[in-house]
Amino acid sequence: MIRGIGIDILDLERVKKLQEKLGDRFAKRVLTSNEFKQYKEYTRQRQIEYLGGRFSCKESFSKAYGTGLGREVGFKDIEILQDEIGHPIMTSTKFSGKIFVSISHEKKYVVTQVLLEEG
């Protein structure tokens, strides 16, 4: 049974400006320690895309979960890593069902969609 669907779009220029202003502090606020390790391995442009994608995915998850980001669901409650061929795999300490995630980048935007399935 579908619990919820969430979608988000993000202008990567916004992430770039936050990264320039706050450096790694912004990334450390949004990313889990495993995600941050991957983030640090990338070039500057790829870091912006990666961070924007993770931010947007976590926003999409919170919409599908029905709470938004805040007290009930935080950035660190959600992790997006990759499988052996590069597909995103999302896990959450707040949800035990199946999570389907899609991330798409297009020049200056990233769009993400999350579907939560229970039982």
Automatic annotation (TrEMBL):
It catalyses: apo-[ACP] + CoA = holo-[ACP] + adenosine 3',5'-bisphosphate + H(+). The keyword Ligase does not apply. Keywords: Cytoplasm, Fatty acid biosynthesis, Fatty acid metabolism, Lipid biosynthesis, Lipid metabolism, Magnesium, Metal-binding, Transferase. GO terms for molecular function: holo-[acyl-carrier-protein] synthase activity; magnesium ion binding. The keyword DNA repair does not apply. InterPro entries: 4-PPantetheinyl_Trfase_dom, 4-PPantetheinyl_Trfase_dom_sf, ACPS, Ppantetheine-prot_Trfase_dom. Mg(2+) binds at residues 8, 59. GO terms for biological process: fatty acid biosynthetic process. GO terms for cellular component: cytoplasm. Its cofactor is Mg(2+). Its EC number is 2.7.8.7. It holds the Pfam family ACPS. Residues 4-112 form the 4'-phosphopantetheinyl transferase domain. It is found in: Cytoplasm. It comes from the Bacteria. Transfers the 4'-phosphopantetheine moiety from coenzyme A to a Ser of acyl-carrier-protein. Belongs to the P-Pant transferase superfamily. AcpS family. This is Holo-[acyl-carrier-protein] synthase. The gene is acpS.
